[in-house]
Design goal:
Blueprint lengths: L4 H5 L11 E13 L12 E12 L15 H13 L6 H12 L5 E10 L9 E8 L4
Antiparallel strand pairs: 1-2, 2-3, 3-4
Helix pairs in contact: 2-3
C-alpha cells in the first residue's frame, strides 16, 4: 500500500478557536550551516532548510495591532540564525532540539514542531533530516 503525496503534505491543523490557539509558522527558511559528522562537513557550510510550527496561546486581551501581543516570526528567524552562528554542530537532531528550546522560552508557545533538513546530501533525494515536536513545561 502506497501513501499518496497529498496525505503526507497536508498542512498541520494547529489553530484552534475553542482553545484560543493560534498557529504561528516559518516556512522553508534556508540558511548556511556548519553541520555534519563527516570530515568533509567540518569546515564547508551547507544549505539547511528549517520549518517551524508553533501552537501559540492567544492572550486574554485583544491584539490591539501591537507586536508585543504576538509571537514575532522575525524574532524566531533571528533566533534560528543565532543558533547557527554559534558554530559547528554534528547532528541535525541537536539543531532541532536547540531551536525547539528557543521557541519554547516564550510561555505563550504551547508546542513547537521543528523540521531540520540538509538539502545537498544525496543526488537522488531532495533532503534528509529530522522533525521533532516538543511541549512547553509551563503549560
Amino acid at each position: 500500500m502506497s501513501i499518496e503525496p497529498k496525505e503526507v503534505l497536508e498542512p498541520l491543523k494547529i489553530a484552534d478557536a475553542r482553545q484560543r490557539i493560534r498557529h504561528v509558522f516559518v516556512r522553508d527558511l534556508v540558511l548556511m550551516a556548519l553541520i555534519g559528522v563527516h570530515d568533509h562537513e567540518q569546515d564547508r557550510p551547507q544549505r539547511v532548510r528549517i520549518n517551524l510550527d508553533l501552537a501559540v496561546r492567544e492572550g486574554d486581551g485583544g491584539l490591539e495591532d501591537d507586536l508585543a501581543n504576538v509571537v514575532c516570526y522575525e524574532q524566531l528567524v533571528a533566533g534560528v540564525q543565532d543558533i547557527f552562528d554559534q558554530g559547528h554542530v554534528g547532528l541535525v537532531e541537536t539543531i532541532a532540539e536547540r531551536i525547539s528550546e528557543m521557541c519554547l522560552t516564550d510561555f505563550r508557545v504551547r508546542s513547537a514542531r521543528v523540521r531540520v533538513e540538509k538539502l545537498d546530501i544525496f543526488d537522488n533525494a531532495q533532503s534528509v533530516g529530522v522533525e521533532i515536536e516538543r511541549f512547553n513545561a509551563e503549560v
